[in-house]
Amino acid sequence: TGSPVMNVPWTQAGLPALSLPAGAVAREPAGPALPVGLQCVGRPGADEQLLGWAEGIAAALRLTNGTLVDT
17: closest CA among 43, 40, 48? Predict the structure, then answer.
């Protein structure tokens, strides 16, 4: 979700980073919903740990048709 340019600062710093789709948000009540993402950044060398966290975060978001499900 979004431009890979947003990961450049983390790459230059040597930090693992990834982006997760996090649903959609409408700017106006009747307006179109636009996709939003969640950028996650880990400590140096913590790539596998970041992937584990991302898996849990993605499961917690429970996306349905690109829209957050409220439970």
Answer: 40
* Count of Cβ atoms closer than 10 Å to residue 45 Cβ: 10
Are the CB atoms for 21 and 37 separated by under 8 Å? yes
Stated pTM of the model: 0.68
pLDDT tens string 34-62: 888 888 999 999 999 999 999 888 888 76
Of 27, 21, 25, 23, the residue nearest 67 (C-alpha): 23
Contacts 24+ apart (CB under 8 A), 36-40: 36/1, 37/1, 37/2, 39/6, 39/7
